[in-house]
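Class, study these two lines:
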Amino acid sequence: MNDTTKPKWASHYTAEDITRIERVAAWLEAKSYSQAALARLARISPSTLNQMLKGGYATSPTKLLANVEGAIIHSEETTSNAVAVVETSVYLLAVACCRRARASRNFAVFSGFVGVGKTFALKHYATSTPNTYVIEATPTMTPQSLIKLLARVVAGFDGKGSIDTKFSAVVDALRNTDSLLIIDEAETLTPNQLHTLRRIRDLSNIGIVLAGTEHLSGLIKPQHGQFDQIRSRTGFWPETVQQITEDDAAALTQSAFGKEEVSDEVLKRLYQYSKGSARMLVEGLLPAIKDYRKGRELDIKFIDAIAKQALNLKPIVGV
């Protein structure tokens, strides 16, 4: 939409669609952002974005335009040393787990390999959604310490009182509200702690998300096992996330470089080095590139050098 020709809107474009497109086009021009870079942030193809902006997308563009505007908002919130919040496949699955648990007032299980971005997604959901509480379980936590922590976080109860009093305070604070409890690192919970959470759920009538590594599923999955009462109350349990997708990595990388368009070759090489780990990409590769780049061209040769010299990664061969 850099030309002066006014788009001819397809009949299925609504007035709101057109207004959104005008906002997007104005932002692209003001920020000198390329359509391809924005498309990566929004996790849609550049050709799709181009068709929408020109008014000729074959179906209603409303949902995709919402994704585009969301990507713009996230980009604006990014600081110079941070990667924008990107709605990766892992993030969207985390949100789905939270929404399902909240709506059904039941358990949801969200498991994934280390480094795929589970905790980041859940914490971002919690900070942007009222009445959502995140608790991080630890291997040394006891049922009593779990109740004390919940009493502080949920009920603001940090004074003296028996464990039963604090348990009751948690239940009273949550009962029949739209609250959601998220228990991260849930694979470290003991049977007694899980049963405590089950009683809180039963008495307060709220949803609970159990999040953790792939070991969490192995803990709860066996039928007729010691956690069968948890299993029977679980209404949403997607497959364990093993890695982020190549599109996820492209969006995360593009968010780190803002309006500078990153080549497909560089995106592919970064994904190969990350091996599907959002943590390796966001906390390892991308910061190293920014620290050592100093004006160098962002190409495969430079990526290979950074991977070897800064992170001691094995070189990618045969590609």
